Amino acid sequence: MARKLASKKTEIRLILGLLITFLGVLMAAGLVSAQTPTPDTAAPTLTPTPADSAEASVVIPTAIAHPAADGVGSCFECHIDLGDKQTEIAEKWQASVHGKAGIGCADCHGGDPRTDEMNMSMAPEAGFIGIPPRLVIPNICGGCHSNAQRMGQYNLATDQYAKYMTSVHGAKLEHGDTRVAICTDCHGTHDVKEASDPSADVYPLNVPDLCARCHSDTSLMESYGIPTNQYETYAASVHGEALLTNRDVRAPTCASCHGSHGAKPPTSAEVVNVCGKCHTATQEYYQESLHSRIGDNAPKCWTCHGNHDIFRPDESMFVHPKPPEERHCGTCHMDDQSFRMDKSRFALREDRRCDTCHHEGSMIMAQVAALRTALTNADAAYRKAEETIKRAKSRGMIVTEAEAKLTEAYTSLVSARAVLHTTKLPRVTELTEAAVASATAAEAIASSELGENFIRRQAMIVSLSIIGLIVATLSAVKHELYKQLQ
Amino acid sequence: MAGKSFEHPVSLWEQLVNWADERYHMRELMHALLHVYIPRDAKTYYLGGITLFLFGVQAVTGTLLTLYYQPTPDTAYDSVLFIMGNVNFGWLIRSVHAWGANLMIIFCGLHLLRVYFQGAYKPPREITWGVGVALLAVTMGFGFTGYLLPWDQRAFWATTVGSEIAGSVPGIGEHLLRFMRGGPDVTDATLSRFYGVHTLLLPLTLAAFLTAHVVLIHQQGLANPKKPAKPRRLSAEAGSQPATENERALPFFPHYVLGELIAWYVVLALLIVLASEFPAGLEEKANPFQTPSHIKPEWYFLSLYQMLKLVPRTVGVLAPMVALPILGLLPFIDRNPEVAPRKRWFAILAGVVVLTGLAALTIWGLSS
Questions:
Q1: Where are the alpha helices (DSSP H) in A146-299?
Q2: Is the pTM of this model over 0.80?
Q3: pLDDT for A25-37, tens place per residue?
Q4: ipTM of this predicted structure
Q5: Which of A154, A191, A207, B305 has minimal Cβ neighbours within 10 Å of its Cβ?
Q6: Mutate: best of A448, A467, A479, A483, partner B, most B CBs <10 A
């Protein structure tokens, strides 16, 4: 009986235990579900979303392990004397940033640099891998360059490998496509130079040519379906002109918009931030506009300015010289009247105008016309003052005061062109009126100097006439005197 | 009827002259100064006289400029702007001063060339020539010191580069540079010492040399380019004294002076045209932290500047320091007494070569 009672108690405890465990699991599950947001909530996620999973999943490689070299290392001592290509390689390495920092052959090729016995130093057992396959080169470079402790002394970033693996190049390499750009294609192999070295391929002025090596190669790009005219288009653009013609290192290169290690085309959601890296004020003004509130379908920087073919903006960008004969409703409207943006309608420079989207006779077009008039007038006033100052200056007049006023006009005009991105007429006209006022003042000063110059010329003619008269009289007297002498 | 004497009425001017003559023997002095003769063959082209006239113009316009100019880095630029924009005829005075400086160097150089190619530097006129070379050096000193005074970008950086060249003189370069600048850099100390040198030291030096130059010319008269002087037989014929009245001599006054006066008027007209059509400019205010992309000294230093780019710095710096004393001592080096070009072909050739070289370097410097 006692035994029966004991076994009953054990069963009850077991059932109670199971119940408590079950309740505990339920409570825990409740807590977890409270912390993990459902897809329709805007609360921050604690788990990685698919967008950044690639970055999060990057496994940082480790450097090639090898015994420490004694001094320069036996590899260099032998290879420098081998002649031809081997000597050339050794010399290039010696002059490279790696050679100067003591990063030796074994750091990339493996092996045992302590011995000059080839069968030992270059033995597979010693970890020698020979010429590394393209597929593993980012891992070899990343082995050192992702190591914060190791790179700290050179003040170098350590995110290149992670960025590369999230780039279009890295993603394709990961899938076994070895035709894509890897570290050595841009930085070189044995002759790696600092990015600040003007002779380096990655120096800003050389970047477009570097990218064009592959991206202008039609046979290579054909299989990816990527056009190959970007270099020519960029070179003719305002950015290309600044970088390639004016040699201005501040101008954007391919890498400025696409990224270097993380190279990929900016998306519609990213483009405003990409352009805003340099055009900060314009970005802020744009974000105040109605355009920016439309979302992904909104006209972004590239809608009006293009991408590789960015040209110098002017007042002709407002409307077509002649209204388009055929209106494309599909440019902005879906069949169900919802809003869309057909980017292909803005492929040509001639079509990047307000009236490509906005209807003629609409309230918005009336505002566009007012904006255009305000800016055109300000620009005309500025140019007129500039021309008068130039004329006064060419005649040697001091026009410092006029130039100061003209600078004021220019500042207002440039600000007005930036504020135009808000699409707010009163804010633009406030600045254009200031520009016109300053330009008019500059023009008045320069005109007065030209008037002064005219008076000076007249006075000069009078003075020359008097001198001419005196010289003629003196010459006559002299002639008479000499005649008497003879 | 007692004889009545009719005295010629005495004009006020004559009364004044008589008054001065009674006390200071003015007639005697003026006669000694003006009533001399010069060889008819002497062709001066009035170049020396024009240089003298230009010095006068510089002295007058320079004095007027000092009434408004303020020699401190904070105020110099603005005071020049004020002269150009607000002072009545300020633009004319400054422009004439700027153009006068250039013309003075040009005419000084032309005068030197005339004397050189006519062999007029030869004994007994060694000292006159030496003093003349010193006058050219002082004139260029005027140019160098005056260039800084507007304190604009061009002025500041041309002086920086110019004094840098002086700093390359072997041995004493560093001391020379500090002496010129009044410290290691071009600062307010440089401006005030350049101003002092430009407006006091150099005018007094030039006046002293000029007096010596003119007195020596007056004492010896002009050289005859067709007749070599014979220093051992000092006679008027030999050209060591002014020519006397004869059929081959020309009265200095009024004949020569009249020609000189006409030349001065022509140069004055040239100055007015240059100043009106091309007034003196002014760049942005000097900024020691913003080096312009192209720094060039004035045209008369350009040949030296260009040469410095071609030869080792020490050679380039020492060249003018050696060349100038050689030029000054030329009458003692060139012992050939002949003055006719065909009898001194080497000197003529050497002159042409040096002149062509300097011109080529200047043009090269201008275009580079």
A1: 148-151, 160-166, 168-174, 183-187, 207-215, 218-222, 230-236, 238-240, 254-258, 271-276, 280-287
A2: no
A3: 444 443 333 333 3
A4: 0.89
A5: A154
A6: A467
